[in-house]
Amino acid sequence: MSQLRALAAVLRGGGVGGSRLLLGGCGAGQARAARRWAGPRRGCSSRTEPLLPALTASSYVEEMYFAWLEDSKNVHESWDRFFRNLQASGPSGEAGERRPSALLQGRVLSHSHDRAQKVVEDHLAVHTLIRAYQIRGHHVAQLDPLGILDADLDSFVPSDLITTIDKLGFYGLTESDLDRSFQLPATTFIGGEDSTLPLREIIRRLETSYCGHIGVEFMFINNVKQCQWIRQKFETPGAMQFTNAEKRTLLARLIRSTRFEDFLARKWSSEKRFGLEGCEVLIPALKTIIDKSSAAGIDSVIMGMPHRGRLNVLANVIRKDLDQIFCQFDPKLEATDEGSGDVKYHLGMYHERINRGTDKNITLSLMANPSHLEAVDPVVQGKTKAEQFYRGDIQGKEVMSILMHGDAAFAGQGVVYETFHLSELPSYTTHGTIHVVVNNQIGFTTDPRMARSSPYPTDVARVVNAPIFHVNADDPEAVMYVCQVAAEWRTTFNKDVVIDLVCYRRFGHNEMDEPMFTQPLMYKQIRRQEHVLKKYSHKLIAEGVVTLQEFEEEVAKYDKICEEAYTSSKDEKILQIRHWLDSPWPDFFTAEGEPRSMSCLPTGLDEDVLQHIGQTASSVPIEDFKIHPGLSRILRSRADLVKNRQMDWALGEYMAFGSLLKDGIHVRLSGQDVERGTFSHRHHVLHDQEVDKRTCVPMNHLWPNQAPYTVCNSSLSEYGVLGFELGFAMASPNALILWEAQFGDFHNTAQCIIDQFISSGQAKWVRNNGIVLLLPHGMEGMGPEHSSARPERFLQMSKDDPDHIPEITEDFEVQQMYDCNWIVVNCSTPANYCHVLRRQILLPFRKPLIIFTPKSLLRHPDARSSFDDLAKGTKFKRVIPDEGPASQSPRQVKRVIFCTGKVYYELVKERKQLKMEREVAIIRLEQISPFPFDLIREETKRYANAELIWCQEEHKNMGYYDYVRPRFLTVVENKRPVWYVGRDPAAAPATGNKSTHLNELRRFMDAAFNLNAFNKRDM
């Protein structure tokens, strides 16, 4: 009766699997039965609807049977099939008796009731079986080309999959049921045009769809339409069919992939190349994705990948000239481009060409990537987002990304999750990425059972409901079909999708490694494994698709191409790193690759521009928009500042952003809580207090034809989001892209992006980038994790020479920045902050800019600037000299304190209390790197008779001390001592005790101004 209750639930509109096909509709007899049980007819339709609440499942079936016995046309055709099956399986002479009088004898009615219940139960069992294959069929798919491992790390076969006859009992079925026909549910396409199939054929088709060389994970997706789309692609009989022409193309691509690796192995047998052997099918897989996407309208594809197979992808997908690749193996090649360069399997490429499959132009970019394998993932996403943004491609129909991964890294690297987590956030989505996992089934030497806790390396993708297609990489046609479906999925739904190429690594981690040390059984099998090209060529020859001669001619043709490129590569005498640019800016540089101008432009603004921006910043440009009362007070305070021609930190930032927007420069500010600002100072997004989701961004209401301003709160991520913004900044030099840390020291979880991409990107990959990092910094007594942005780390990686003062010329300031790897500043005034942001764009080149931003100074009454400090003709001050009484009589000054940042205001306050304005000069170092040798030399000469002090609030082993010390000594030619004042060395960047913090501050303030008893410690 339980199954009959389920049947009743279907009739009431609940739905069980696909049973609506069996029970849908009502005919005349059905209506009469309904009236007999529950009064007047309520109406019928072809849909399953709640018929009669009073009707029970068992009585309803009996009434349908009664009506059918009178005339089969009285009921819907699904009921007719139902009862005919019942009649065929009943005892001779009983079910075939169609006299109504027989129903009045309890025997037939009772028997029919039992039979009806059995039939319903069996149909529901078959529906459950179908669902079991859809959910868990991938667990028994034949995915491992070697035949020795289970891709899901588990040899257990789910008990609800029919792998042997005896398992039919799990569903209450027997072997005799195999030839019975069952109605198929609407949630399967295995029947094709047939609505019923014998159980034996149902199981065969399910195994073909879900347990062959393709394993599909998708039933966790909570969207019925998407699930049905995937079912149709993999269940429809004959869906995976290829023409002879498609097979020949696939073979030709497989030849190129395989023979390229063979060629490298022959010519450079002792070189590391991280070849693709064991997953040669990756090349035709990528080309299939690109072909399918190009046909759908995509004309730009941005890719990221680790080492393995990179040279092959460059050669056969991007189509980089082979001689440019082969010359990289020449150890005698001299480098002429700037920087140190990088190993060949880290380099990227940008190329525009005709896609031969679609005869359309397509641009392909492969991003350069360090050994931090998955670090490139968010960078690719950011660059893709930027290209979509600047094109107005709001649905990702023109630009897309492809990310390739290794199995161990995909499962193990947290940035993979961070990148997935960005995939559907409005300000970060790229409208679907195709992920291709080269699943070696091993890490470097680590068995997957020791490398991950999840069944598959791809399980992280489930968090965003991305379908996962596992496929045996030794079945090229299965791989091609999966790639076609993945490309269609991305085009149709604009969501991420994962292709898991289950393959093997024919050699070790690199060609010099011995894998038999740690995986002896696997590599014994690999040595016996037949190459995929050989297997597939034999298959096509046997099918008559190609002849042996045609195959051999295609191999010889590509071998000849490689040999000719090898010969020409020997003519290369110079290593041109610029040939490997992945993000060129053709309109920004000259033909020789140099900036168009080296003149340093002033960064000041007209008064009317300042007033207009200030008034907009202190108002709500939308009518009937109710803001928070506290925000109203903030806006009134801003208006008062503007009226008095003054600005605080927030207004200084507003002036920089607003003026750049006026000049057509896109500004994008991203990070945790940046819309309001961590310290509630910014308020760039106003929220209506009475209408949900109604917001206003005043910055986008400044000018009629201004550039757009994008301000977006990010997910709680640093690594992924900073990588994303770095990639965004790569797309165009004419944009100001800023990432702000919630607290400066939180950037340490993004240290990989800083170390591998931002600091050294130009040296390794000639990659110019103007990204700006805003890092709140300052010792406020907040504890070790909310105090220091770790300036020592950035300064340690600055490449200027501490022992040499460059030639001081008219363009010294600009030339220094042109030669450095990044710029590090700590501004102490809103005007200087505005200037440095504007200078970042007005410079004729791009360098990363690191700004240590304030916390308490955001509202400090003395940390204000006049509009005069931003007037036309003014510019950023690398050093702010003392402008008080001490500067009037420099020869009388006894001590000069050099400092940077917030500590300046504490020193000024202490000096005033001690009434030492004439004895002590305080000079602010605003640009720390590149070090302003010229200006510091002027100041030290000016105060020729004074002691020189470096004062910082950070501990001695942190902050700026180790960076400025040798440079100060170089400036004074080691002829004058320079003393240190600050906190003693410590392990943590700050104390967690407020009292201790204040005592430390008191001690070094005393030291800074105690002229007689100063404990001198030579720097």
From TrEMBL:
<keyword id="KW-0786">Thiamine pyrophosphate</keyword>
<dbReference type="InterPro" id="IPR042179">
    <property type="entry name" value="KGD_C_sf"/>
</dbReference>
<keyword id="KW-0479">Metal-binding</keyword>
<dbReference type="InterPro" id="IPR011603">
    <property type="entry name" value="2oxoglutarate_DH_E1"/>
</dbReference>
<keyword id="KW-0106">Calcium</keyword>
<dbReference type="InterPro" id="IPR029061">
    <property type="entry name" value="THDP-binding"/>
</dbReference>
<keyword id="KW-0539">Nucleus</keyword>
<dbReference type="Pfam" id="PF00676">
    <property type="entry name" value="E1_dh"/>
</dbReference>
<dbReference type="InterPro" id="IPR031717">
    <property type="entry name" value="ODO-1/KGD_C"/>
</dbReference>
<keyword id="KW-0324">Glycolysis</keyword>
<dbReference type="GO" id="GO:0004591">
    <property type="term" value="F:oxoglutarate dehydrogenase (succinyl-transferring) activity"/>
</dbReference>
<dbReference type="Pfam" id="PF02779">
    <property type="entry name" value="Transket_pyr"/>
</dbReference>
<dbReference type="Pfam" id="PF16078">
    <property type="entry name" value="2-oxogl_dehyd_N"/>
</dbReference>
<keyword id="KW-0560">Oxidoreductase</keyword>
<keyword id="KW-0496">Mitochondrion</keyword>
<keyword id="KW-0460">Magnesium</keyword>
<dbReference type="GO" id="GO:0030976">
    <property type="term" value="F:thiamine pyrophosphate binding"/>
</dbReference>
<dbReference type="InterPro" id="IPR001017">
    <property type="entry name" value="DH_E1"/>
</dbReference>
<feature type="domain" description="Transketolase-like pyrimidine-binding">
    <location>
        <begin position="647"/>
        <end position="860"/>
    </location>
</feature>
<dbReference type="GO" id="GO:0006096">
    <property type="term" value="P:glycolytic process"/>
</dbReference>
<dbReference type="Pfam" id="PF16870">
    <property type="entry name" value="OxoGdeHyase_C"/>
</dbReference>
<dbReference type="GO" id="GO:0005739">
    <property type="term" value="C:mitochondrion"/>
</dbReference>
<dbReference type="GO" id="GO:0005634">
    <property type="term" value="C:nucleus"/>
</dbReference>
<comment type="similarity">
    <text>Belongs to the alpha-ketoglutarate dehydrogenase family.</text>
</comment>
<keyword id="KW-1017">Isopeptide bond</keyword>
<dbReference type="GO" id="GO:0006099">
    <property type="term" value="P:tricarboxylic acid cycle"/>
</dbReference>
<protein>
    <recommendedName>
        <fullName>2-oxoglutarate dehydrogenase complex component E1</fullName>
        <ecNumber>1.2.4.2</ecNumber>
    </recommendedName>
</protein>
<dbReference type="GO" id="GO:0046872">
    <property type="term" value="F:metal ion binding"/>
</dbReference>
<dbReference type="InterPro" id="IPR005475">
    <property type="entry name" value="Transketolase-like_Pyr-bd"/>
</dbReference>
<dbReference type="InterPro" id="IPR032106">
    <property type="entry name" value="2-oxogl_dehyd_N"/>
</dbReference>
<dbReference type="GO" id="GO:0045252">
    <property type="term" value="C:oxoglutarate dehydrogenase complex"/>
</dbReference>
<keyword id="KW-0832">Ubl conjugation</keyword>
<keyword id="KW-0809">Transit peptide</keyword>
